[in-house]
């Protein structure tokens, strides 16, 4: 292939999720999915699913697709906020100018109620196969195997202004030079599974938190920056965040606070107080730094609060993450 693929537009749901459209089947059935670099599987609701969450969303009807093949394997996926069960099928997948044949994906038969109120139908994982629950080649692997991409990369630009313009873009096979300024800093993936890179922590003025090395999973499917509670307590104490609920820290919606620098392998990536203040929409604001001790002892999950400020590039062949300053027109 030599023509650059079109960028796939993303919608921004209140700075909480970013989602875009894909189709599965012949003729195609449309779905809205979150593109998630923190998981590896693709799933959508099935017409066989009668959970409340499925009833509220578009459901895949396998009997209407000529290219559908049922594999029959069962799958179960647990996320930080919900879980799904179902069966594995194969079919034709289309998105952003890419067509993948015989793509394995999950058709859910059951979804926890968390998924009932979300704007998206399913999840499209973009992490490595090592953390797949479906145990077949992921969409990203198949795009590369089926020569759908010029380069084995994808890049993500997220907009923070959800009231105006594009919510974001996902570009397969290339890097969009118009979406960032300055140089790209590349960091090797330390352990395939997540897009996980070496993290030194955060620097606020002259203080570094934590004092021990951590790693960071760069995760488009997480709204905030989630870290061990010990780290979150320290950062929030320095920026005026007060323990609120569910690992969140409340903060006045206005006011100037110190910049927080996220430090990867000695390099500083600043986030201003305006950028890390998240408005929940009811007059409450929280900081972008949340505490959670579930299973990720030394790892931070670096989500959209960071990725709105920094353009991210995921190189599948070189196993590295690139970070550059995101460009937003008219201050967006």
Please characterize this protein's 3D structure.
This protein is mainly beta and 332 residues long. It folds into two domains: 8-158, Acid Proteases (Cathepsin D, subunit A, domain 1); 180-324, Beta Barrel (Cathepsin D, subunit A, domain 1), CATH 2.40.70. The chain is 9% helix and 44% strand. The protein contains five helices and 26 strands. The longest helix is centred in the last third of the chain and has 11 residues, at 229-239. The mean pLDDT is 94.
Secondary structure blueprint with pairings:
Blueprint (H helix, E strand, L loop, with lengths): L7 E6 L3 E8 L4 E8 L5 E4 L6 H4 L13 E10 L4 E13 L2 E14 L10 E4 L13 H7 L7 E6 L9 E5 L7 E9 L7 E4 L1 E4 L2 E3 L4 E5 L6 E3 L1 H11 L2 E2 L5 E3 L8 E5 L2 E5 L1 H4 E3 L5 E3 L1 E3 L7 E4 L1 H4 L2 E6 L4 E7 L6
Parallel strand pairs: 3-8, 4-7, 15-24, 16-23
Antiparallel strand pairs: 1-2, 1-10, 2-3, 2-6, 4-8, 5-6, 6-7, 9-10, 9-25, 11-26, 12-15, 13-14, 13-19, 16-24, 17-18, 18-22, 19-20, 21-22, 25-26
């Amino acid at each position: 292939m030599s023509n650059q693929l079109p960028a796939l537009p993303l919608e921004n749901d209140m700075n909480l999720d970013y989602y875009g459209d894909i189709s599965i089947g012949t003729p195609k059935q449309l779905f809205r999915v979150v593109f998630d670099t923190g998981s590896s599987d693709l799933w959508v609701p099935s017409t066989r699913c009668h959970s409340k969450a499925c009833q509220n969303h578009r459901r895949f009807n396998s009997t209407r697709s000529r290219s559908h093949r049922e594999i029959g394997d069962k799958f179960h996926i647990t996320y930080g906020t919900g879980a799904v069960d179902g069966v594995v099928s194969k079919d034709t997948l289309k998105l952003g100018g890419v067509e993948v044949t015989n793509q394995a994906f999950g058709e859910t038969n059951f979804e926890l109620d968390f998924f009932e109120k979300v704007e998206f139908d399913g999840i499209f994982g973009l992490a490595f196969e090592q953390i797949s629950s479906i145990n077949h080649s992921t969409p990203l692997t198949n795009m590369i195997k089926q020569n759908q991409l010029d380069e084995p990369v994808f890049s993500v630009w997220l907009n923070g202004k959800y009231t105006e313009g594009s919510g974001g873009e996902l570009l397969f096979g290339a890097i969009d030079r118009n979406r960032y300024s300055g140089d790209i800093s590349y960091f090797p993936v330390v352990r395939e599974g997540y897009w996980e890179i070496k993290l030194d922590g955060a620097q606020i003025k002259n203080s570094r938190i934590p004092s021990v090395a951590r790693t960071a999973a760069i995760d488009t499917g997480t709204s905030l920056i989630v870290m061990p509670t010990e780290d979150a307590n320290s950062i929030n104490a320095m920026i005026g965040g007060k323990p609120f609920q569910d690992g969140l820290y409340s903060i006045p919606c206005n006011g100037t606070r110190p910049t927080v620098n996220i430090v990867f392998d000695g390099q500083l990536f600043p986030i201003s107080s305006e950028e890390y203040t998240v408005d929940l929409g009811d007059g409450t604001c929280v900081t972008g730094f949340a505490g959670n001790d579930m299973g990720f002892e030394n790892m931070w999950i670096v989500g959209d609060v960071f990725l709105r400020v920094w353009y991210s590039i995921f190189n599948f062949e070189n196993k590295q993450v690139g970070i550059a300053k995101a460009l937003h027109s008219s201050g967006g």
